[in-house]
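As noted in the main text, all predictions were made from sequence alone. Below is one such record, for Aluminum-activated malate transporter 9-like.
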Amino acid sequence: MAVKMGSFKSVFAEKSRERLLSNKGGYSELGFCINDGVDETKGWRWCCSPIEVIVNSWTTLSQSAIKLWEFGRSDPRKAIFAAKGGLALVLITLLIFYREPFKDLGTYSVWAIMTVVVVFEFSVGSTLSKGFNRGLGTLSAGGLAIGMAELSILFGKGEASFIVFSIFIIGFCANFIKMHPTMKPYEYGFRVFLLTYCFIMVSGYKTREFVTTVVNRFMLIVLGAGICLVVTIFIYPLWAGEDLHNLVVKNFMNVAASLEGCVNGYLQCIEYERIPSKILTFQAFDDEVYKGYRSALGSTFQEETLLGFAVWEPPHGPYKMFSYPWKNYVKVSGALRHCAFMVMALHGCILSEIQAPAERRQVFSSELQRVGTEGAKVLRELGNKVKKMERLNPGDILSEVHDAAEELQNKIDRKSYLLVNSESWEIGRRHKVPEDSEEIVGSLDDESKFLSIKSLSEAVLDLRSVEVPKGWDVHNTNMGINTPLLEDDTSENTKIQLSWPSRYSLIGDGMLNNEESRTYESASALSLATFASLLIEFVARLQNLVDSFQELSEKAKFKVPVDPPPNEVIGFWTRFSKCFLFKN
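Prediction:
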């Protein structure tokens, strides 16, 4: 079916076609290189001289070394973890060489080395979790294997068949049970259980040393796990609980920065000239506003993983209590994500095809700016309280942001005619009522022409009556907030927004289609109402976030904030007398 020129469908279809057909740098939308007209002699040459091979190899090695150095500097804990892992392997090797406790230690030494390699993890909690799972799986599988081995002897010639059948039954039950959600923390233990059971049953069938195999394997696993725990806990320990704590604080700061960036970008009419496909598919992209809320929304799996390790860790540092409420950290982060969804929707208004004109945004600019600033201030305050492990100060932390939201709502009530297509409303002075029919027809034609040539940014209402302050510049508005995205963003993906749509259908001799023009104007006005309503909804969701934080502060026994002492005003004579007494 043909699409009418200038309609909604044609505009959206044209936008989509431009995105799909625009290629940059010789690459298609899927990232494949387009080599039309490229000289093939500039490609890879298969025959290189030995000197070039040496130079290229040295360049590659030096670049790899630089990348590894930068990788280590970004988080020095990774280098420390690697050194601790090497130390654990050295210790277990020295114990294997020293054969005094067990004469046959070297025969089963592979189990100790495998335990160190498998159990040694980045954090204390993950090491404890794996060590416990490996020990429990080995012990339970060894006991069961000894019992099943004694039972298989009773079958005589059918012993081998019984062993095979028992392996099938045990494998079925273990694999089925470990898929239950409550068994997720013990998934590694089930794997060790199956491995140990099969190894003991198969090897014991030939050697008849079931008990010896179980004891030696268990003792060496305990030895390897013990070395891992000693190195992990007593040499620069890395705690999963602390990582979870810092992650929640980081999410607070990122969402606050994204909120301010969205509000400032909307008021400055910043638009993406070409929306990156990575943003549309929610992938990593170097955009300050996008990165902020995306990191908070995408940290769910990381938080759950850290929570699973943190519950294994003993009291340490500022977390000096057993059964520390780590789950409440995840709960607070979930409430923060509930607010971050609104920030994501606000950013979607900036990415939208339909944009409100700058004149209408300016009418609500101060109220929108205040709500964004106060909302970001609340998020940063909560983030700092989590970081310092302090309770909230006396008073209502949401009082200012609620006042700002109420002020915005009142402004919307007073200026609601700017947010709807109210063509039937009488705004401004009345036109003189014509007397004869010819004058009526002429006035209607003039009015139709007047409405048809009116700017799309002014919509149906005569917004020329709205006075714009001289100091308000659409192209360079700071709003009193310094945002890196808006100050330093000089990329070609952004431009100043114009009223949507950029093209519209014409009738006859260049006359505008009044019906479609009114439709566009109504949609652009509603986009401003959408942005304001999303901002108010964000404020409403802050209460749930504050309640979650207060629950965390009570269960974790956060300290009560202490007011700093007032600064004592010291006069000239006081300083002079102190100086005179000091000299005496």
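Confidence is low (pLDDT under 50) at residues 1-6, 18-46, 424-510. The first helix runs from residue 8 to 21. These features were considered when defining construct boundaries for the mutagenesis experiments described in Section 2.9.
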